[in-house]
Design a protein that fits this description.
Keywords: Coiled coil, Membrane, Transmembrane, Transmembrane helix. It comes from Arcticibacter svalbardensis MN12-7. This protein has one domain. It contains 4 helices and no strands.
């Protein structure tokens, strides 16, 4: 075929194009869906009318699945945070107990003894300062 306009077709080119009668018929496979759509309860028109509803149902199904995944993710995160809070609570309690032990008088005296400080044996003395009040 050479470069020509479509209107300049020769007879030999027209014979090469198949006619609709010459085309082989497409045979649909026989399965459940084709039987229902062609011979059964649902026709092609009814199925195409139901398509928006089917798409809506599929969308709701996807939303349900997504919501379920989101909820499970939140539950796992809550459990993880609860475990972390328990660990931090245990750390707080052990540190508080250690601090209470280290702040007792005997522990403080033992620690300061290495610095050369000693615990006084006699009680502290009270200093008395006389107050001078001027009268006007």
């Amino acid at each position: 075929m050479s470069n020509r306009f479509r209107g300049d077709k020769k007879e030999e080119d027209q014979d090469l194009e198949p006619t609709p009668e010459a085309l082989p018929k497409v045979v649909m496979p026989r399965n459940f869906f084709t039987i229902i759509l062609t011979e059964g309860v649902i026709s092609k028109e009814a199925a195409s009318e139901m398509m928006p509803f089917i798409i809506f149902i599929a969308f709701l199904g996807m939303m349900y699945i997504g919501n379920r995944h989101f909820a499970e993710k939140n539950i796992r995160q809550i459990d993880k945070l609860n475990k972390e809070v328990k660990e931090l609570s245990w750390d707080y309690k052990t540190l508080k107990a250690d601090l209470m032990l280290k702040s007792t008088q005997t522990e403080v005296a033992n620690k300061v003894d290495t610095l050369g400080l000693k615990e006084p044996v006699e009680p502290p003395k009270k200093l008395m300062v006389p107050l001078l009040i001027e009268e006007k």
